[in-house]
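Re-run with default settings, no changes from the original entry. Doing this only to confirm the output is reproducible before filing.
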Amino acid sequence: MQILKVENISKIYGGKKSTNKYVALKNISFEVDKGEFVGVMGASGSGKTTLLNILGSIDKPTTGRYIMDGKDIATLNKDELAKHRINNIGFIFQDYNLLDTMTLKENIILPLALKGHKVNIIEEKLFKITKDLGITKILDKYPYEVSGGEQQRAAACRALITSPRIILADEPTGNLDSKSGKDLLELLTFINKEYKATILMVTHDVFAASYCQRIMFIRDGEIYNQLYAGDNKKQFFDSIIDVMSVLGGEGR
């Protein structure tokens, strides 16, 4: 079942009268089905982060449509966009974006508290998610008191607790060591399978991308190629490397 559809999206910075226009995205079109784990890759300046910002309704496309649940998200007003973000989208960032003045528990339940959920519902959701993601014993600690991997697990809990339609992950392993990064990728795979979560992840890391079911490669603001994972993970990994070598290697 299709969860979102992007139709001919372009993003141009600089305005109509500017002499220094920059075209970040050029008529991009694709679809994402419910439960997919999709990666977005490309060299530095390719437009992948711009695309993620548009899908997260942080930015608006210059032209084109972004459809979710039959609504063109680009046409929503400021209040409608804020409601859409909190109800439908979960974010996982490279730098965690946890509030240092709040405990991990307070950070995780903040989206539900903002929505006015009852305490018993919040506690019920909190218990299940933190148990599944293995951080129940550190909920009373502050972000600066735990490891980067534990902070990223808390960020994943926060993204998941609202039962979002889609989770957008921006370089989620970027600040983690290799072991913590692998643990997070295993966690995202668990979330994708057990919670039937739809995940779209921007990454420059070939190893991280190999955990996805499909990779979209962006080059100069356009979709250059797509790869689908088969039964042979090593072959998928090698194919990703081959495409990235053509695109100019790794980078944001």
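The chain has one domain: 2-247. The first helix runs from residue 48 to 55.
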